Request: fold
Amino acid sequence: MKTVLSLFCMLGFGWCLWSCNPVQSYSEIPEIHFKQLTVEDRQYTDIGIIRSAVLTFSFLDGDGDIGEIDPDTKNPVSRIYYTWYQKLPDQTYKQYEFSKDVITQASNIPYNSLMNKDEAQNKTLKGAIEIVISTPSISEGIDTMRIEYYITDRAVHSSNVDQTPDFSIRNITDVPIKAK
Reply:
């Protein structure tokens, strides 16, 4: 009887292990991937029309600490850092300077911009972030650009660096530039 009971216990335990879906773990270092970009003119009541690049990228963070939670605290916040690159006639790129001291710009990532908190995967957070960035002035004779960007989470882990495809800031089209 003891052998039969032991056999049933072992079979039951084996079945539990086999039938349970393993929880996949992801790195605490965020991962980002370009999804799409559109260039559009946006109307603002206080300053008028501004040409903007609307960048959308996906993210995956294993410990779910992306996005600013309390802007009044002195704790580190989750940010996106981006640098514009101008394509030159010889097909090389140079960093575009918005002013004498500004090459790389940064914006906080608001917590409410995040989506798809996966409760089954512990703290894993994945989804998409859309950010609107004012483009360089088209009156400066600039045309083809690209944006390199990365994010940091609240633990100040930096993601991989990703970039947009080349795009024109002069020509607005209804078709967004999408990831290949």
